[in-house]
Amino acid sequence: MGKRSIAQEMCRDSKPALSSRLAQFSWCLYDWANSAFSAVVITFVFSAYFTQTVAADPIIGTALWGRTLSLAALIVAFSSPVLGAIADKTGSRKPWLGGFTIGAVLATAMLWFIQPSPSHALLALVLVGLGVIAFDFAAIFYNALLPTLVPHHKVGRLSGWGWAAGYAGGLACLVVALLGFVQSEVPWFGLDSDSAEPVRAAMVMVAVWFGIFSIPMFLCTPDRGRTRYPIGMAIRFGVRELLDTFRNVRQHRNIMKFLAARMLYADGLNTLFSFAGVYAAGTFGMTMSEIIRFGIALNVTAGLGAAAFAWIDDWIGSKRTILISLVSLITFGAALMLVESKSLFWPLGLAIGVFVGPIQAASRSFMVRLAPKDLETEMFGLFAFSGKATAFFGPLLVSTVTLQFASQRLGMATILGLFLAGFLVLLTVAYPSAKPPSKP
Q: In the chain, what are the domains?
């Protein structure tokens, strides 16, 4: 007998159930890994560094940052369905997932070279844009692994655990970045604050975090076997099948209605994330440090909500979980539009966080339950499209209404309209009683 590989030894187990749990844990750990990119690079640290220090001034920096993320979202939106369809024809998901993960990790590590100078702004935007695209493409194949890991009636809890792990991982990496690098009076490794080395080093730390914690998923989580299609034939067949899906949209009417509903409420969520800090500062007079503390607390409640609703999803179904979450978001959101006290902003805002995690996790599990067998990656490509295609609309609506009525409250209230519209469309989606068959 030949020697076992290191990967086989790590993932070997005499009990299939235990091996399955290891595979599921490793899959969730990827959520822990990649959320560091979202939390540190996109939301809190590098975004602020770019707009405040790298760009010529904060106004120009904010505009360039927003346009870069919008362009990346459009590229992801219109490439994802094609990419997913091709991947279904090649069979295995891990090679695609591995390639895009490496791309995101390398783009993040390269941010070390971004000096606090406008001459580095273009390189910074290119690297961030490539990182976002690779990150979102990787998510397509990561999500498509979910139905291979658990029975159909348990996808809700695993999806919820994954989202909860993601929130926890993002927060853990953010805390390390802030305490060890960004806000430390004496940064680790003797880094020079005058050349922004602590912030730049935090990006390298994120890349290492992302890469290392991704490894167990590649070693221990099973993948679907490769097909016999060469890549050229896989591309032709994948594109042809995607076109057939659109031509025969009536056969997938239920899925398309769900994707339309998600397009609406996901736009509401994305807009809420984008404007929450602006609303907290402008309407309630919160300082930057208060906003950061609130953002961290919000992520904690969202992670707890995702974990708690993981069992509820499998108990009452993904559709009901999303509907309950939307009703709660509308209710607490409406209250938040009316109150004027900062002391009330905190509990209402954190209550909203409780239902943000479940709606994201349950949307993923609902897609698993709706997707025809052997077309999961194509459907998750369309899922990615539904989350990105109209990403411009919510921010445009908020800014337009805010300017028209000179009121942040009325502007933010439009988000509730997106939640309500998504709720009404989702009511028309039939919950599947069994896994849909694959295409003949």
A: 17-426 (1.20.1250.20)
Q: Pick from 275, 388, 286: which is nearest to 333 by CA?
A: 275
Per residue in 62-76, pLDDT tens? Answer: 778 878 888 888 898
d(CA 340, CA 353): 19
Give pLDDT tens digits for 250-289.
677 899 899 999 999 999 998 887 777 778 877 888 876 7
Tell me the one-letter amino acid at 205. M
How many C-beta atoms lie closer than 10 Å to residue 299's C-beta? 22
132/372: higher pLDDT: 132
pTM of the predicted model as reported, rounded to 2 decimal places: 0.83
196 dihedral zone (left: phi>0; alpha: psi -120 to 50; beta) = left
Among 397, 392, 372, CA closest to 382? 372
- Which structure tokens are listed for 336? 């938040």
Which amino acid type is present at position 51?
T
Q: DSSP state, 438? A: P
Alpha-carbon distance of 438 to 65, in angstroms, equals 41
Whether the CB-CB separation of 197 and 396 falls below 8 Å is answered with no
Average pLDDT over residues 69-94: 82
pLDDT (0 to 100) of residue 378? 79
47, 183, 195, 197 from 114: Cα distances, Å: 12, 19, 10, 9
